[in-house]
Design a protein that fits this description.
Helix content: 25-40%
Mean pLDDT: 96
Radius of gyration: 27 Å
CATH architecture of the largest domain: 3-Layer(aba) Sandwich
Strand content: 15-25%
CATH superfamily of the largest domain: Alpha/Beta hydrolase fold, catalytic domain
Low-confidence stretches: none
Number of strands: 18
Shape: elongated
Structural class: alpha+beta
Distance between the termini: 55 Å
Number of domains: 2
CATH topology of the largest domain: Rossmann fold
CATH class of the largest domain: Alpha Beta
Strand order of the largest sheet: 9-10-11-12-14-13-15-16-17-18
């Protein structure tokens, strides 16, 4: 039975294909589609030639078992490729190889590249050596023995060496003669021309091997320049494309990109319990730009931030901006599971992992998003620089739980005219949320009412349970992340202002400031985006 192996793909874009188009397609469509199959692919790495040879580009994917590469799950990716992928790959000279792993040796310092940050990973060196066995009857065995008994040990003495692996032609390549490829991982600086390396390639046994048993058919040196995650994130190459070339919608409708008028990626990530959750990435296209993330309230979508985001981008163009929908907005896991603040904080962590974002500059959340923001700062302090938690309570009450149960009953009941009960709930919710002055603006009322109405009813039932029974007050003094609390002046007719003023001093060693947005209610960033910016601008 086949074991772990590698999918090894060399690529040379043809002269007519712009490199930014090639990279954007590969980084935002091709690679993430494969990394969304963790049962097959454990990582995806892109390299560029460091030896001035062609093909210039290399992609290497470690696979859990090469047998998976013969299944429909994998082959259907190629069979059902998008029209854009078909057009783009038609302009690339591609060679694809399947390799079964034979041997592996690694340094105690080796860390799987996918576990490194981009800054740590980029620039790592890879030496790829292909060997063809000679006609001697025992050539295959002698090559394997040489690597296992001598060569890997000798290479391990080379400065910067991290890992060596030997692969042979996969059993999937029926009828193909056995060949070998050795992949040697080195740090960003490696002693490839030094005395230790020369000693490794000059032993008597090495000379005998090449004389009798093996021919080196190629030796390539590559530099790592991109590590895939399962979520598309390449705003930079997207920003270099025209509106026509940048606008793409995947065949399943779940991924969308455009550079009109600015680069935006909409796609999804998958949680450990199998739930797919949409996200939107935009703002500064520099891959090293710091990231600000936003958590919406229960029953709304990531688009509740739309008007405020335009103000934020104009005032803080240095940031990437990340938004996502809460679990339950669109669907629930199977079997159904009530949400908790722990789970919601874990979802943010899963999103950051999928996007390979090691740390957020700031996290901003409102209502259930505010409680989730505080929970994330307590559970994942090393992944957050600061936070803003808006219009939330640090603890729930039995009365609050009872109110949520009543709202579930309304949402799940069909009205006399046949319309869904969640439409009635939406009207009640917006009236409860908004300041009387906001209720006079019918466009704002209709915008949020329609957003609430479109929430999945079953998702609401399980999602709102995150707010039933929690208490963050006891943990707040442990918080090591600086925070700002914000509340609309009229939220709960002023009751929430008093509540947040009461617990703001519990945060960390110094407490948190409380900013009040005048003439707004539960969603100040929707009711008065400019006023909300005034409240938080000095903090971010």
């Amino acid at each position: 039975m086949a074991g772990p192996g590698s999918l090894y793909v060399t690529m040379q874009p043809q002269p007519g294909l712009p490199l930014e188009q090639f990279h954007e397609w590969y980084n935002n469509e091709h690679g993430p589609t494969r990394l969304k199959l963790p049962q097959i692919f454990t990582n995806g790495l892109r390299y560029q030639a460091a030896d001035n040879q062609e093909p210039t580009y290399l992609a290497v994917y470690d696979v859990t078992s090469t047998s998976h590469l013969g299944t429909e799950t994998y082959t259907s990716l190629r069979a059902n490729r998008s029209s854009r992928e078909a057009e783009t790959i038609g302009q690339v000279d591609v060679q694809r190889y399947f390799w079964d792993r034979v041997l592996s040796k690694q340094s105690p310092l080796f860390v799987p590249i996918e576990q490194l940050t981009d800054e740590e990973a980029e620039g790592r060196m890879l030496v790829a050596v292909q060997l063809t066995p000679k006609e001697a009857a025992n050539s295959v065995e002698e090559i394997q023995k040489w690597y296992g008994e001598e060569h890997m040990d000798m290479l391990s003495k080379v400065p910067g060496w991290l890992r060596s692996r030997l692969f042979k032609t996969s059993s999937l390549e029926e009828g193909q003669p056995t060949r070998f490829i050795a992949l040697h991982d080195y740090g960003k600086t490696a002693g490839l021309g030094g005395p230790e390396y020369q000693a490794a390639i000059s032993t008597p046994r090495t000379k005998e091997l090449y004389a009798k048993y093996a021919t080196m058919s190629s030796r390539r040196i590559y530099s790592l320049f991109y590590v895939f995650g399962p979520a598309s994130r390449d705003l930079y190459n997207l920003s270099q494309l025209s509106a026509a070339k940048s606008t793409f919608k995947s065949p399943d409708g779940k991924t969308f990109t455009t550079n009109s008028p600015s680069p935006v990626i909409e796609s999804y990530f998958t949680t450990p319990d199998g739930l797919t959750i949409p996200y939107r990435l935009e703002g500064n296209p520099d891959p090293k730009a710091p990231t600000i993330a936003f958590c919406n309230s229960l029953l709304t979508s990531l688009h509740m931030w739309d008007h405020f985001i335009e103000i934020f981008k104009a005032n803080r163009p240095q940031y990437r901006i990340l938004r996502y929908d809460f679990r339950g907005r669109h669907s629930i896991p199977s079997p159904p599971q009530p949400s908790t603040l722990d789970i919601l904080a874990d979802d943010i962590n899963s999103l950051l992992t999928a996007l390979r974002i090691p740390k957020l500059e700031a996290l901003i959340g409102v209502s259930m998003g505010g409680a989730t923001t505080l929970k994330f700062s307590l559970k994942y302090p090393s992944k957050l620089g600061k936070f803003i938690a808006c219009d939330f309570n640090a603890t729930s009450s039995p009365a609050n739980t009872g109110a949520w149960k009543e709202r579930i009953g309304i949402a799940e009941t069909s009205l006399e005219d046949g319309s869904p009960g969640i439409r009635k709930l939406a009207g009640q919710t917006v009236e409860r949320w908004f300041h009387p002055a906001t209720m006079q603006r019918q466009d704002t009322v209709a915008w949020i009412r329609d957003m609430v109405s479109s929430n999945d009813v079953e998702g609401f039932r399980y999602g709102c349970q995150a707010l039933w029974d929690y208490d963050l007050k006891a943990q707040m003094n442990e918080c090591a992340v600086p925070g700002l609390f914000v509340v609309g002046e009229g939220d709960g007719k002023g009751a929430l202002v008093k509540a947040m003023d009461g617990f703001k001093g519990l945060l960390g060693q110094r407490g948190a400031d409380l900013a009040i947005v005048p003439k707004t209610g539960h969603l100040p960033m929707c009711e008065d985006p400019e006023g909300f910016w005034t409240a938080i601008g000095n903090f971010v």
